[in-house]
Write a structure and sequence with these properties.
Elements: H1 3-24, H2 28-33, H3 40-62, H4 68-76, H5 85-106, H6 108-116, H7 133-154, H8 168-187, H9 193-210, H10 215-218, H11 222-248
Helix pairs in contact: 1-3, 1-5, 3-8, 4-5, 4-11, 5-9, 7-8, 7-11, 9-11
Length: 254
């Protein structure tokens, strides 16, 4: 891969992650602060549709991965150049974080009123938390594993029911809608280390600027769960496909 090609892909990963951080995570505000989005199912559809259009835009450039676990799984399976791993990770974390920063800027006054009313601490709006660590670990692992397993199936030519290229972004969106609806009430459905870690850093900065309590960002150690478990889940999903499903599928046609 040329340096120019890698540069374009890294920029693509940053922009895809940025848009999801801003327009995807930003939808938490009308859900949790303003009440314009009435429930988790509605939020899941909003988030899923943003993902669909981001995939349409950036899939031809970098694969629109915007998820360190997906990138890791593709690299470990040999489907992607290992030289992309660290640059993609950096772009993804930066994109999700800066996107969340733009969400803070967009809703600055609403979030100030949210805090002053005593409704909650806005520093914690854009990253995940769980009241049950064990359930959080299980669901984040399982959710990311299933996501990667589905992606590997949808890009394998031997899976004759795989969606066509025009349908692929919307199948990813439907999968995300399902995972958010099922898991978000328990773990927040990060299933993406960058989607959680980038906004945590920005939440810390935002809180320090405004004098808010920033202990939810890193003090309780949950950031480790959301950083490492999705990576482990992604590897688990990749191994299940390559070691089990791959052996069951018919041979590739040459």
């Amino acid at each position: 891969m040329s340096k120019d090609g890698l540069k374009k892909q890294v920029i693509s990963e940053f922009l895809a992650s940025f848009l999801l951080g801003w327009l995807g995570l930003g939808a938490v505000v009308p859900l949790a602060v303003q009440g314009h989005i009435k429930d988790l199912f509605q939020f899941a559809w909003v988030f899923g549709l943003v993902i669909a259009f981001v995939v349409i835009i950036f899939n031809p450039i970098s694969g629109a991965q915007f998820n360190p676990g997906v990138t890791l799984a593709l690299v470990l399976s040999g489907k992607q150049d290992k030289k992309t791993l660290l640059p993609f990770w950096g772009a993804q974390v930066a994109g999700w974080g800066i996107g969340a920063g733009f969400a803070y800027i967009t809703f600055w006054n609403q979030l100030k009123e949210y805090f002053e009313s005593g409704a909650g601490n806005p520093v914690a709006l854009f990253f995940c938390h769980t009241d049950d660590i064990w359930s959080g670990v299980i669901l984040e692992f399982a959710g990311t594993a299933f996501l990667v397993l589905a992606i590997f199936a949808m890009i394998d030519e031997r899976c004759f029911n795989k969606p066509t290229n025009p349908l692929f972004p919307f199948m990813i969106a439907l999968l995300i809608v399902y995972l958010i609806t099922f898991f978000a009430g328990y773990s927040g459905t990060a299933i993406n280390s960058a989607r959680d870690f980038g906004p945590r850093i920005i939440g810390l900065i935002y809180g320090l600027i405004n004098g808010y309590d920033v202990s939810p960002c890193f003090a309780d150690g949950q950031w480790i769960l959301y950083l490492l478990t999705p990576l482990a889940g992604a590897v688990g999903g990749m191994l299940f496909f390559t070691k089990v499903v791959d052996k069951l599928l018919p041979p590739a046609k040459h």
